[in-house]
C-alpha cells in the first residue's frame, strides 16, 4: 500500500504535502511572489487579502521589523480581486493548493468577493475577518453576530473548504462562543491568529514613531506573538472539542515551533515575519528541521501528534 509522506496533513478536504505555508500578506501580493511560493517547498499558497477594488494601502513607513517582533499597518495594499481571478489559472503552483484570502468592508462586499473567487480554481477560501489596520473600521471578528451573518451567506456560496482568519481574543468565553458558532455555520477551518492590534514602536533618540499610519500603531507579529497565538490554538481546540481544523500563525521560525503548534491542536501553520526576513527558501529549512524532529521521535504521521498536548503535571 502507498505510505503517505510523514509530513502530509489535511485542511478539510485539502491534502498538503507538508504543514507549512505563507501567511496572507507576506510574499503573496503579485503573481511573481505567488509563483516563488509555488516553486518553494511550501505545503500550500495563500494570497494577499484581496479587496473588490485595487488599493495602494496606507502611507509609508508602514512596516518595521524589530528584535523579536514586527509591527505593520499596511492597509490592505493589493491589486484587487480581478487580478487574482485573471492570474489563478496560470499560477506556477507546483501542485500546491491555493487558498484565496478575501477582505471586504461590508457583508455585501464579502458576498461579491466570494461570488468572484468561488467560480475560479482556488482550492479554498480564507475569509479575513481580522484586519486591524483600517482606520475607523472595527474588526468584524470581534462582533460575533456580524461575523456570523457574513459567514452564513458565504458558506452557501462555496462547496470548497472555507476558513476564517481571526484576531486574538481576550477571554476563553469569547473563544468558546466563537468556536461553537463556527461549527454550526459549517466553517471548515480557522486561521489563528492575525497580528495583535495596536502595537507601537518609538525611537527614543528621535522620539519618532516607527510607522506612520493610524497615529503610529499597527499589528504585532513575529516571535512576540507566538505565546498568544499558541494559547488561541490550544483554547480553540479545547472549546471546539477538537472539531475545528486549525491553522496556527505567529512567530513560526523553526521545525520545533511547528511541532508546538501541532501539539496545541493545529493541523498546519503559516509564516509571516520570518518569511519576510528569510525569503521562500525558509520552507525548505523548516521542513528539514521538522523531518528530523519527527524522525527522532519515531512519529510516522503528523495526525498522531495534532492536539496531543499533555498537562504540566
Ligand atoms: C492588513 C493587515 C492584516 O493583519 C490583515 O489581516 C489584512 C490586511 C494590512 O494592513 O494590509
Question: Your description of this structure?
Answer:
This protein has 313 residues and is of the alpha/beta class. It is 32% helix and 19% strand. It has nine helices and 16 strands. It has helices spanning 31-39, 81-87, 107-118, 144-155, 172-185, 226-239, 255-264, 273-278, 282-296; strands spanning 9-11, 14-16, 20-22, 45-46, 63-66, 69-72, 98-102, 124-128, 162-166, 189-192, 196-200, 202-203, 208-209, 217-221, 245-249, 268-271. It has an eight-stranded parallel beta sheet with strand order 3-16-15-10-9-8-7-4. It has a four-stranded antiparallel beta sheet with strand order 5-6-14-11, with no helix packed on it. Strands 1-2 form a two-stranded antiparallel sheet. The longest helix has 15 residues, at 282-296. The protein is globular. The relative contact order is 0.17. The chain binds 3,4-dihydroxybenzoic acid.
Summarize this structure as a short list of keywords or feature phrases.
313 residues, four-stranded antiparallel sheet, alpha/beta, binds 3,4-dihydroxybenzoic acid, eight-stranded parallel sheet, 32% helix
